[in-house]
Amino acid sequence: MKKAKPFLEQRRERRGFLKAGVAMTAGSALAGCDALSHNDTAVQILRSAETLSDSVHKVLGRKAMAQEFLPKDIAPVFRANGTTMPPGEDYAEMVAGKFAGWRFKVDGLVGKPLELSLEQLQAMPARTQITRHDCVEGWSCIGQWKGVQLSHLLEMAQVMPEAKFVVFHCLDLMDENDDDTAYYESVDLDDAFHPQTILAWELNGKPLPVANGAPLRARIERQLGYKNPKYLQRVELVASFDKIAGGKGGYWEDQGYNWYGGI
Ligand SMILES: Nc1nc2c(c(=O)[nH]1)N[C@H]1C(S)=C(S)[C@@H](COP(=O)(O)O)O[C@H]1N2
Ligand SMILES: [Mo]
Questions:
Q1: Strands 217-219 and 182-188: what pairing?
Q2: What's the rounded Cα separation, in Å, for the pair 55 and 39?
Q3: Domains present along the chain, CATH in parentheses
């Protein structure tokens, strides 16, 4: 299979950005989970930011880095939202066994599908970043994440030229009566290869808590909370997501949210 060279070139270009542009300032008003934003106006602003950012990002080519913060800005407890404990015995058993039997897959439109243990992922080069998570429900929270860059795995898997999106398949079922409706999300290759897009196994220096997506969750720092899938089990490269679940590219998108959740 041919390696998708343009992505590698793009990635190198972005590395330059990374070195030059990591913003290290933060107002104290932003420290930790921001309770002040728990109101309707903030929610409306976050929602309208979806459409605004879409056009701004198109103009800028969406290469910008998300702001990074200082250790003093980290919230004492990172708030959890959505699923905080996937239902079912299988997951509970995995937690009890410290995810020893869990395997993470990268497949779909790739030359070399991958199947990796948590140990193998943790042995890969890691990136650590302190960022702010923004949920459309009107709250934000700053945390430090550590994990492997998704670009690293995508290069190993050799993404085929036809691939346009990365689909994240999660372990948590959203409807107990329906085995097929698991949380899922998707991003384009621009976000997938972005240097701050990591698959994190650590939060604030500790193993990723169950409530925040153990054993592995995506951090896609320029996207809203719902575009940051937890409880990952598989990443699939696709040319279109028409045939996946409701066809809109994500669990919340299938319920009417925007596919583009850029901030
Ligand atoms: N698998 C899965 N991923 C998910 C969710 C979920 O319910 N299941 N909720 C999303 C939403 S809306 C938010 S705000 C964040 C919450 O992440 P946290 O629990 O670490 O705060 O996860 C996102 N990813
Ligand atoms: Mo959210």
A1: unpaired
A2: 26
A3: 64-250 (3.90.420.10)
Instruction: State the Cα–Cα distance between residues 159 and 162, nearest whole angstrom.
Output: 8
pLDDT digits (tens, 9 = 90+) for 227-236: 999 999 999 9
Ligand nearest to the CA of 185: 1
Q: Is residue 172 within a helix (H) or strand (E), and if so which, with residue range?
A: strand 165-173
Give SS3 for 128: strand
CA of 254 to the centre of ligand 2 (A): 15
Angle between helices 150-157 and 5-21 (to 10 degrees): 160
**Residue 238 to residue 244: CA distance in whole angstroms:** 10
**From 74, 184, 228, mutation site for ligand 1 pocket: most ligand atoms within 8 A of C-beta:** 228
Whole-number Å distance between alpha carbons of 172 and 205: 24
pLDDT, tens digit, 9 for 90 and up, residues 176-231: 777 778 999 999 999 999 999 999 999 999 999 999 999 999 999 999 999 999 99
What pLDDT shows up at residue 113? 98
Tell me which residue has tokens 């404990």: 85
Paired residues of 55 in beta bridges:
none
Closest CA to 128 of 61, 217, 58, 202: 202
Ligand nearest to the CA of 183: 1
- pTM for this entry: 0.82
